[in-house]
């Protein structure tokens, strides 16, 4: 397996070794999901103590999925950013090769402990980072010339909430934090000049909300409920950022939806325990959902990414250790496979280059990023 850069991998593995040696972050091997980070339980207890049942386990021994939103590419296509719970509080900065999309390590900065999610503000000026185990958020300004980061602020989120996903509005004036342990969605206002975040509201949802998405116009937000197998539909007030629930769509018993992605008039839902994707038809007027079809995609599908043309979909299957490219039928939403690539042990997320040059697959267990070329058809090529 070819790693993206020897210095980057050495640094990451050193950080991982440090974590495992001193116990910070409490990483534990699991036969179901490899290495998973510990956070606070829904009752506020830490699974890192006592019996040591570390990996996101509930009382019934069910293992919930790990972090997915840990890598992002800047809109300029020049820089990329990466965090990982095993990296002992470091945020890595990469240069992106303009011709191929390959990554080259630039530098790293100390960030909040347990950082396990990040997003680049749509205005391209800020990186926002969160820690589900510490309920913390940090904001960094981006140097537009070299991609380096300057810390703006660090703030405390709601106690025992467990922010696992960050979703900005299209203009970047508001940020939604999906809180796994708190069963809620926090609404933050983002200062357009400084990037600082101030909480405006919190909405409670059903059982373990996970990876959200908005439609291309920013009118609706879709949030899967991993614990209850629903998809929540919210309308978005563009002026205030406030969200109003308009539908709780049944996704199918036992599906455990973990991530959603909108593509035109369709929403794709990864069903973690059914090894399928649900293709949901979206009403363009009110955003409501209805099931159109179901597609088999491999064991334990989790993260989904959309190609820049809106006509390709990329799906990671954790259990199968693969990433698959699909072409989207624009009329029916149906998916046609463009091929599958092996992505090692426990691939957890995929990010597509803004110009469609490459696919970046994050591997949680080996703590690395695998970069695949993408050809003109949208199919995955060899590793870069």
Briefly summarize what is shown.
This protein has 384 residues and is mainly beta.
Shape: globular
Strand content: over 45%
Rg, Cα atoms, Å: 19 Å
How much is the average pLDDT?
84
Question: How does this model look, in words?
Answer:
- This protein has one helix at residues 6-22, and strands spanning 28-30, 34-36, 71-73, 79-82, 90-96, 103-110, 115-120, 126-131, 136-142, 149-156, 163-168, 174-179, 184-190, 197-204, 213-214, 220-225, 230-236, 243-250, 257-263, 266-271, 276-282, 289-296, 301-306, 312-317, 322-328, 335-342, 347-352, 358-363, 368-374, 380-383.
- With 384 residues, it is mainly beta.
- The protein has a domain at 1-204: Methylamine Dehydrogenase, Chain H (7 Propeller).
- The chain has a four-stranded antiparallel sheet with strand order 3-4-5-6, covered by helices on one side. A four-stranded antiparallel sheet has the order 7-8-9-10, with no helix packed on it. A four-stranded antiparallel sheet has the order 11-12-13-14, with no helix packed on it.
- It is globular, with a radius of gyration of 19 Å.
- Mean pLDDT is 84; it is low at 1-64.
């Amino acid at each position: 397996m070819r790693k993206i850069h020897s210095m980057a991998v050495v640094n990451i593995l050193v950080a991982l070794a440090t974590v495992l040696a001193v116990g910070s972050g409490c990483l534990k091997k699991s036969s179901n999901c490899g290495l998973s980070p510990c956070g606070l339980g829904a009752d506020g207890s830490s699974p890192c103590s006592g019996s040591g049942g570390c990996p996101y386990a509930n009382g019934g021994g069910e293992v919930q999925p790990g972090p997915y939103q840990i890598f992002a590419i800047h809109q300029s296509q020049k820089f990329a950013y990466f965090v990982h719970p095993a990296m002992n509080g470091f945020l890595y900065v990469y240069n992106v090769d303009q011709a191929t999309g390959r990554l080259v390590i630039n530098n790293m900065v100390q960030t909040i402990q347990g950082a396990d999610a990040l997003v680049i503000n749509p205005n391209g000026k800020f990186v926002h980072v969160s820690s589900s185990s510490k309920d913390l958020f940090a904001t960094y300004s981006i140097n537009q010339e070299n991609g380096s980061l300057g810390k703006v602020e660090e703030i405390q989120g709601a106690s025992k909430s467990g922010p696992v996903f960050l979703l900005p509005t299209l203009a970047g004036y508001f940020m939604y934090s999906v809180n796994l342990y708190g069963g809620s969605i926090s609404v933050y206002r983002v200062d357009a000049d400084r990037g600082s975040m101030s909480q405006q509201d919190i909405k409670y949802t059903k059982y373990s909300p996970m990876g959200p998405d908005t439609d291309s116009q920013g009118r609706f937000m879709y949030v899967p409920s991993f614990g209850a197998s629903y998809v929540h539909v919210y309308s978005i007030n563009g002026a205030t950022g406030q969200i109003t629930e308009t539908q709780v769509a049944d996704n199918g018993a036992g599906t455990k939806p973990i991530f959603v992605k909108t593509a035109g008039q369709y929403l794709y839902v990864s069903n973690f325990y059914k090894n399928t994707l649900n293709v949901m038809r979206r009403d363009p007027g009110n955003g409501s959902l209805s099931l159109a079809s179901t597609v088999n995609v491999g064991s334990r599908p989790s993260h989904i990414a959309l190609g820049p043309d809106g006509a390709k979909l990329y799906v990671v299957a954790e259990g199968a250790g693969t990433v698959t490219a699909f072409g989207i039928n624009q009329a029916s939403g149906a998916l046609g496979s463009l091929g599958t690539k092996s992505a090692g042990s426990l691939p957890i997320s995929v990010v597509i280059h803004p110009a469609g040059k490459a696919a970046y697959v994050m591997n949680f267990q080996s703590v690395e990023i695998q970069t695949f070329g993408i050809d003109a058809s949208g199919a995955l090529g060899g590793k870069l």
